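Interim report, section 4.2 (structural modelling).
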Amino acid sequence: MARLLKLVLIAALCLTATLALAQDTPAEVTADQVNAVAEKLYCPVCENIPLDTCGTAACADWRNEIKLQLEAGMTPDEVITDFVRRFGDRVVGIPQDPALNALTMVTVVAVIGAALLGGVYFLLRNRRPRQPEPAIPAPAEGAAPASNAYYDLLRQDVEG
Amino acid sequence: MIAETGFFLLLFSFAAAVYSALASLVGARRAHGEKLIVSGRNAAYLTTALVTASLGMLLAGLLRQDYQIAYVWSVTNPDMNAFYRLTALWGSQAGSLLFWSFLMSLFAAISIAFAWRRFHALVPYAITVMMVTVAFFVGLSVFLENPFERWWLAGGTGDVMRSVLMPAGAFAPDSLNLQGSAQGLNPMLRHWAMAIHPPLLYLGFVGFIIPFAYAVGALASGNLSTDWIKATRRFTLVAWMFLSLGLLLGGRWAYDVLGWGGYWGWDPVENAAFLPWLAGTALLHSTTIQEKRGMLKTWNLSLVVLTFSAVIFGTFATRSGLVESVHSFARSEIGFPMFVFWFGLTLVAVLLIIWRRGRGELRAEHEFQGLLSRESLFVLNNVVFVALFIAVFWGSFGAPILSELVMNTNITLGADYFMRVTPPLFAALYILMGVAPLSGWGVTSLRRLGRAALIPLVLTLASLGLFALAGMSTALSYVAYFVVLLAGWVAIVETARGIAARRRAHKENVVTSAWQLFGRNPRRYGGYMIHLGMTVIGIGVIGSTLFQVETQRTLQPGQTLELGGYTMRYDGLLANQVAEDGRLMDIAQVAVLRDGRELANLRPRRDFYPQSEGTNSMTIAGSHSTLENDFYVLLVNWEPINANQATFKVYINPLINWIWTGGLILIAGTFLAAYPKDVVSERARQSVALAKPGQLARKGA
Amino acid sequence: MADTLTNHAPTAPEPAETAAAEPSRRRLGPGTIALIAAIVVAGAIIALALARQGQTQPTGGAAADFEFTTFDGETMRLSDLRGKVVVMNFWASWCGPCRDEAPELQAAWEHYQVSGDVAFLGVAYADNGPRSVAYLDEFGVTYLNAPDLGTRVSELYHIQGVPETFIINQDGEIEQFIFAGITSEGLRRIIDPLLQEG
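Predicted structure of the assembly:
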């Protein structure tokens, strides 16, 4: 019921706005202002194309609606929230619904964090146990069986 | 006749590929299987020849305008020129699948010829892997997406049917009728970048089968030395280059044709092509560690599997309709077979790795020496690439799929998500790109790093000063440019150092010593050049992302709009111009001025294709390009356009042309890095042997 | 240059072969099992997603139930209409073909309205409130109409676009799915037999 009231309210707002527009043209909302909001929205009939660049009739209609809502005094954030309420979280680039938002953002940050930590842990664990390192590995160093090969590489590196 | 011939060639190639896979596998398992192995190899060559011939038939059908063939009918029409007839080969699902099989079999044949003698132990298994894959894709063409199907009319009823061979009682429809109703290539694909973008992307994709096949060959044969890396390094590099170019050209196409002022939309299909690139780039770096230090064996094998698995996954996701996007092919039946193939291939490869690892055959030969050694930094590089992979995969596929399954809600993560998650990771990559080349294999001290970084740091700060003079103001952009420029300056300075050292030692002029230097260590200097290319691309990406400005305005003829120091004047409209391929064009004429001086006359236009179904109109931008920026004008197609008024959307995309320039540097770098050094290496080794280690180490700093 | 290195590699083919001869069966570690499980789970999820992606508009079986609030403020469920034949039409004010259908639907509704055996339900897909209301006024539509808030109903029925129409019989089962191009005549040809059966 509350939803409906809001809807009616918006309808009323839009209508007044249109009427007001017809009468004495208040501060006009520019195409740029509309696009600034539209580029954060995606319409359900055009996959993955931001609303500001989509040419279908549905998109044109939605942009017009953004214009009306902005003219009615809604802030860009309010417009976006209202679109999400009516058309679902698919219309925004990052879902607003707390559960969905957590699913997308928290999961990815956690997984990336784990990957980074895992990498560092791997390096630390596989590190050669503390041993003072000479600036240039001495040929006598027994620990590395490939020290001759290592020298070859070094030469190649430098010469090549 | 063309259709039947093409189909039977394809059918035979399927049989040959299956035989080749089996013969090679059985031959490799048997003690005296050499004859079978040779036979399997020959069958692989035969497969390539047959697939090529089959593709030739389809091409002949397209060029000869044989509209009886359903594929030809659906992607060409009499108005199209020969060039677009050729590109129609990959204009739709069935043709592009065959084209894909062709490229893959071609890669397979070349790699077999290359590796046959030198890496004989790996080849039979590699042939099995490659031929199973080829057989799978050819099989899709034969059984599900047949490009050779023809139109038929049933004898009694006149119903329309599609099949390769004439159904009983049916007759062929009239050619002229068919010609009249032929649909023509999807208008969006009629663009030079689109003509070469798919082949490049496919070359990149299929090229990664080579490292995968030989890695599996290594796992299966037990030859777990670096042979598989050596046998495939150049193929990987070339595949990587094609993939990079394919991605760049795809961006260029979107920029020119899709009409939204950008080149990368983080669309799931774009990302599906980006994923193998991320894994492949990590692979190129980490295999070096195994070659030089004998470490990370398990990791490298896993990375190869990840890369090729991502290739097949991307293909499958794009072609099955798993995700919907402007780029995807129409939904079709090939989804499930492709899924099964992708899953089976990944699982078998992973199990092989686990098996070999369980037997202790993948142990590292060295340990990590300090977090600043080059191998440690390479590991970090790999970790960041994998993190990026996860972030992009999650945003494109993971989260949308899970939210649909678990919460029954459709979501699509857009640029907002990717621009929040990925920039720190890209920055980390550029930092590593700047630091790692200064660090040495084995052990590196912070002091040494700092000394080596001094000159690049100074140069970076100096370039930032130039940016400041140009009026750059946000802190974020300084951080971004610092990171990106440092990587580039390091590449340049390290190259200059090498040249200088060589000049001192050999008393050569700059050109000769550069030539010699590059010739002796093409991998290193090719790598630096690629880094430089990445920096140039980074400069363009940051500029066009952070400083893009746009405006939308409706103008009457003679009216002007101002944006970013430019003035644009609407001069008039040429409405309903008919192009030779039958499309109608509304062309706006606009002039771009700066400081009262006329810079260019642009013709942004709207094309309408009356004959095409589906997407039948396009907005083609007019653009005035300089190294500084693009002044990019679109006719807004949802607003009325007539001689009295037109609505324009105008973008200024700073530094965007650096992206394409960076791509060229990337190509040059890859060719250098892939340059066969074997010819000169013997001589080089001899000359090095004369020098004393101490001297060399000193120069090495 | 790396050749010198690989000479030291302990993993040349020969030792591998001898190792294979020994029956050294190692048990799989927990990490390995977790890895394999993860791959299988990921595969299963993607397979499931693919199967669902392939789902198209249902053409039979029980019609999925949902709650809706009409533009007049009445909240009800689809199942409340059980016992009647339901014509459920997805539309939008920005959609051209919907405009062709609207008078046909209204005419059919007026034909059955008196009998009370048939309910018409319009679902406004991806449309905005005021526009939808204006559209309904324009065509004098008098049957039940509700916005599809959050596009949940459209997802439930896997519609691909608008207009799309489902005919649901008295038992709440989908009788027919019509892609587009509804006429009053055509509707009656489908509905009348259903009414006679019931």
